């Protein structure tokens, strides 16, 4: 009688992960301006990606029993915008904010080392370029990551305006077409409910006709920027894309 061969549980988990998620390896980790950190992942060719999209990184092993028993599965995923991706080379560049504290996402980013395996979901999200008379970008450091990818993808002959807030001038990411953007600085003030960014957008000398706006960052601030564009400048709400990434007291927003 033939003996039934059992597939090890670990092998089953790996096959399930390979069907549902993407596996890559850290190739490089280096400091970025401000409290940001570049993390380059390799070995991920052929993914479909639209500039502005994000990936969900497994900062804990969701197949491990200890992750579920401890309740850590609630914090096992962290969402990061993609700074750049080369599908032919299979290289993805993330730019991750080093948040204060010792949360799972902060630990993952601080401890990432070349050679580490990284499991993440395929690129997703609808925050992406649209057609318009011109393009307006407004946000702070967390918004600068998708903005970098979107600005890089824009044709050179399409008009760009923007207000980008950082704590200090040296905290600015190297955004494409940076000279066409207005930069503002909040100093030691909080980025939440930032009147600095709203005032910077209000001061922009925009064309009379509405364009297409991409507003991202802290939830209350992006709502205030949208209210300015819609209520004060008369823009249609459909012309303003809003992406709230975070707000105080919440682990993350979608």
Can you put this structure into words, describing what you see?
The structure is a single chain. With about 250 residues, the chain is an alpha/beta fold. It is built from six helices and eleven strands. The strands form two sheets. It has a six-stranded antiparallel beta sheet. A five-stranded parallel beta sheet has the order 9-8-7-10-11, with helices on both faces. α5 runs parallel beside α6 (about 220-230).
The side-by-side strand order for the widest beta sheet comes to 3-4-5-2-1-6
Shape: globular
Structural class: alpha/beta
Task: Kindly report how far apart the N and C termini lie.
Answer: 55 Å
Radius of gyration: 20 Å
Question: What is the overall pLDDT average?
Answer: 89
Helix count, DSSP H or I runs of 4 or more residues: 6
Q: What's the order of the H and E elements?
A: HEEEHEEHEEHEEHEHE
Strand segment tally: 11
> What share of the residues lie within helices?
10-25%
Tell me the β content.
25-35%
Report the biggest beta sheet as strand number plus sense, adding barrel if it closes. Answer: 6 strands, antiparallel
Low-confidence stretches: 1-7
């Amino acid at each position: 009688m033939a003996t039934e061969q059992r597939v090890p549980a670990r092998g089953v988990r790996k096959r399930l992960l390979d069907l549902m998620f993407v596996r890559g390896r850290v190739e490089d980790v280096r400091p970025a301006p401000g409290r940001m950190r570049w993390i380059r992942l390799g070995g991920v060719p052929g993914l479909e990606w639209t500039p502005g999209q994000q990936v969900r990184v497994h900062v804990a092993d969701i197949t491990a029993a200890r992750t579920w028993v401890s309740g850590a599965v609630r914090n096992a995923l962290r969402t990061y915008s993609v700074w750049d991706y080369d599908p032919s080379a299979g290289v993805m560049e993330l730019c991750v904010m080093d948040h204060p504290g010792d949360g799972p996402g902060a630990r993952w980013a601080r401890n990432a080392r070349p050679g580490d395996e990284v499991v993440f979901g395929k690129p997703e999200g609808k925050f992406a370029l649209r057609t318009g008379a011109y393009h307006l970008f407004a946000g702070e450091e967390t918004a600068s990551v998708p903005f970098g990818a979107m600005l890089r993808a824009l044709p050179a002959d399409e008009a760009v305006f923007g207000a980008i807030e950082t704590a200090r001038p040296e905290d600015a990411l190297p955004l494409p077409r940076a000279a066409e953007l207005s930069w503002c600085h909040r100093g030691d003030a909080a980025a939440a409910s930032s009147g600095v960014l709203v005032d910077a957008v209000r001061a922009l000398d925009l064309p009379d006709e509405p364009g297409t706006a991409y507003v991202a960052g802290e939830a209350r601030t992006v709502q205030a920027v949208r209210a300015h564009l819609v209520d004060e400048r008369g823009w249609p709400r459909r012309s303003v894309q809003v992406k709230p990434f975070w707000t105080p007291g919440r682990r993350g927003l979608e």
